[in-house]
Design goal:
single chain, two-stranded antiparallel ribbon, globular
Length: 283
């Protein structure tokens, strides 16, 4: 009887632990920023369809002849969503996506969502442009992911990240540490370099040029800002309590004025003091 009781107790304990783990995962998924959550969901869904042979990757690849002359315009977008089949390499890529996209999205509260979405579109264009020059344009998701990671590291250069078996690096050097690791592992680095070129082009045109020459070539268009605030931001606010707004429509630019640093000095790479912890992730 005692053995039966212990077995039942262990079974109940394991069941409660499984339920707790499932609830923690659901809570983690629900707490994800809106764009990050749906981007990762779509990428995982596409990987599943590709893995089980339901969706041929050739339908998603960026082939200019098909995209332009056959009007298969979806290829300009779907090529960013393919990261291969389910594998350890896919998991590592998913970690990069989560790290770069989530942290960037946390910097752009709903009042700045037009600027954030425009950032993604511009870097997507730069990724395709530089990938085309290097004949690496068929799948550009890795390039865009590295570009977003690079931008976040540039805007938050003083954070400490545990990288590769506990090796601590500053986010200012994280992209280069990843490239060094890829070189040591014998992995190709062309996509990483394209991502850096795309991200650095955005940083230069968006932050450096306006500060040095007062030329802002990447100002978010007004029509795009109105479109996002009218059709996208209300859906984000209506889906959950995003950043504590609780359904109140944000005033674009209002928070930017409140967070404006004292003085007229412009610091494009100013850190935000957000603690990052990747101690459990070996890239």
């Amino acid at each position: 009887v005692r053995c039966v009781q212990e077995t039942d107790a262990e079974y109940m304990g394991n069941s409660f632990r499984n339920i707790s783990t499932e609830m923690e995962f659901q809570q983690w998924y629900q707490d994800m920023p809106f764009i990050t959550k749906w981007t990762m969901t779509i990428i995982v869904a596409v990987a599943g369809l590709v893995t089980f042979g339901i969706l041929p990757p050739m339908w998603l690849v960026l082939i200019y002849e098909d995209a332009i002359f056959k009007l298969q315009l979806w290829r300009f977008f779907t090529n960013f969503l393919v990261f291969g089949k389910f594998s350890f390499a896919f998991i590592f890529k998913l970690v990069f996506i989560y790290f770069g996209l989530k942290n960037l999205e946390n910097m752009y509260k709903p009042g700045k969502y037009p600027e954030f979405i425009y950032l993604i579109l511009v870097n997507g264009f730069f990724s395709v442009l530089f990938s085309t020059i290097c004949d690496e344009h068929y799948f550009c998701g890795s390039q865009l992911t590295f570009a977003l990671l690079y931008i976040y590291c540039k805007k938050n250069p003083m954070e400490k990240v545990s990288f590769l078996f506990g090796f601590i690096v500053s986010t200012a050097y994280l992209p280069w540490a990843i490239i060094a690791y890829h070189l040591l592992a014998g992995a190709p680095i062309l996509q990483d370099l394209i991502g850096i070129a795309a991200g650095h082009s955005y940083i230069f045109l968006k932050d450096v040029l306006p500060a040095s020459h007062r030329m802002d070539y990447l100002r978010t268009p007004k029509f795009f800002e109105r479109f996002v605030n009218k059709y996208i931001v209300p859906k984000i606010l209506g889906s959950s309590n995003v950043y504590g707004f609780q359904g109140q429509f944000p005033q674009p630019g209002g928070e930017r004025q409140q967070q404006q640093p004292q003085g007229n000095a412009f610091r494009p790479f100013q850190g935000r003091g957000v603690r990052l912890d990747l101690s459990l992730i070996h890239i």
